[in-house]
Amino acid sequence: MKQIAYLCLSKGWGGLEMNQIRNAKAMQDRGHQVLMIVQDQSPVQLQALALSIPYYIVQKKPRHYQWLFALKLVRILKKYDKQHLFFRNNREMSLAASIAFFSFGKIKVHYFMEMALGGLRKEWFRTLRYSFFTTWNCPLPYLVNQVREYARMDNNKMNLIPSGYHLLTEPSIGQKSARSKLNWPENSKLIVVVGRLDPKKRQDFVWEMFAMRPHDNEYLVFVGTSTADETPIFEKELRTKINAHPKGKQVIWAGFQENMVAVYAAADLIIMPSAFETFGMATLEALSLGCPVVGSNTGGTSELIALYGGGLTFKNQSQEDLSEQIDQVLKGAFPVVKIEQLKQHFSFEHVCEQIENEVLK
User: Fold this and answer.
1) Using the 8-state DSSP alphabet, how is residue 246 labeled?
2) To 10 degrees, the CA torsion angle through 36, 40, 44, 48?
3) How far apart are CA 296 and CA 148, in angstroms?
4) pLDDT digit string (tens) for 329-354?
């Protein structure tokens, strides 16, 4: 049994936050003593409460170098006897490194990478920061290679550990039933985009592609909301643009959906258009349920499709190629997904065993 704290100061609710709390719950279920470090009334705190995961509420400090805040967290972690700190948000790197420093290395800091580096990170201060991490864990092989190329990190500290995925045990649902449950058109082709409404997710790119498609019997469905603690400027501008277009009537704003099983069952395919999707949890979820994916040829989605099939990739700057790959998938011209292999690799049993053997050793 290990004493593990999970640092998660975000007020958002996306794949990064979900993965952090999923891992905490899975490790708790295996007998480890876990503690979530969260902000008050954040989605993570509310989910921890619902799952009976212990948590400690702190107020996030706005400054980049947060020495006093780090000292406070060290005292909290020592009070609760936590020897390991897990974090996923790269905005918390400086804070995590400071915790390792002020604890004189007694608190082991472990970074689970779910955000790409985005370029060279070899400056002396970044290298110093990374040196305080006990392990650096990447969910996909291309991220391991990216860290080796763009940063100075001790190879002995690096691990290839996937983000865990809960295997679905509930009965499958047919497409017709799923569409009825969601109140979506039953006899049309449904092209679904999953993810928060954000310029980086490129819903505007998908809309511009969709607006050029000549098909009358298909709908574009946006599943997701704007980030909770940010002004939804992008969403407002996109809605205005779509409402002014004749094909705006073929767009469905589905918002946040609790029942993602029904979403993937109802969709003819999902699009993952982001050019910088580090991992692509929605891709993993869709593939595990047999829902085809058309994804950008960069980032995690591209690697997942290459490893496990289940969809096609498009040139990330080409709307014409995206439209062409959609047509190919709708025709069924794509590799069959290796579902059992995928589920085995991403199961929490497998992931937690790797964490115990390679991270908490």
Assistant:
1) G
2) 60
3) 23
4) 999 999 999 988 888 888 899 999 99
